[in-house]
Amino acid sequence: MSNEQIIKGVIFSHFGDQGPEPKFWFPSSLDKDMLIKISLKTISLLAGESGETISQQAYLQFPNYSLSSLVYLFGIPKEEVRGKNVAASISMLIKDKYSSLFYVNMSEIEELMEDYIPKIVEKELNDDSSQELLINLYNQISEKINILSKQKITTYKVKEKEIEDKEDLVNRSFKIAIVGDLGVGKTAMLLRFCEQAFRDVYISTNGANINMNTIEIENKYRITLNLWDVSGQECYLEMNEKLIKGCDAIIYVYDITRRDSFSRLKFWYDWVRSTIGYKIGVLVGNKLDLKNRVVSKDEAKELAKDLRLGYIETSAKNGINLKILFENLSKAILKLYKNI
What we know:
single chain, alpha/beta, Beta-Lactamase, Rossmann fold, seven-stranded mixed β-sheet, five-stranded antiparallel β-sheet, 28% strand
């Protein structure tokens, strides 16, 4: 681990004459095809086909390359283009198994990014190369992440040893699938919950994220949770039917600020039931940290009651209720199996 590269590279992309394209990147050995695809996705997804831009950030995944990316979209003033700004982005590429490390330390990374972006814009306005700045940004973030990773591993080993030292604990292993529409925060929830186990994040060949974490319940059970982050795209439903087989429980996630994601919960519930039958589970209203709620707690609780599911609200951003969610669900599974 100490010699393993956590950050794959950094890409500075912009909306050029032919559309989104990479302008500078580091290291220079980055695959050219990957550069083009990542530039196209970051600029097109965040700025749209026109290249018009509003400064924003996003966390995107590129499963074909086993990479995730913290992306900053910003504008470079240019009078002769529509909107008076050229869309540009900086994409920091992270190896997937370290995604949670990056996610939970996002604020520290953001500070560095926000410090460098005005400097890069100034260089571009003066027709000066910003490549050196990009390399410096990469080196600074790499250094910070390496320090954080060593701290996290130390913490993880201490926690791991505390559980392992309790030889009288009963070992159990549960498989839990997390389902819901795209963008509701399923992946972010797991990254946050598994932050102490960032070494155990995998991307399987079929694109499903599999996260693992070990928790202790009631000073009696050592439970390994195998958490399957199921794709929210319907085109993968047939493949996902194989993935959810053998699950002990299901977590149904929606975004409390998006009614469409709430309305689709019945679809996901019926899909699970038609595939593997009824499974105990929890209805989760995510993004509790946002203020523009459109789905009330009362109507969500009513749906959970109708579907015979538990209910809880969470925030992947700050970790609210995530530990409670997985501990309570683990207890429910244990109780179910005691009664069989």
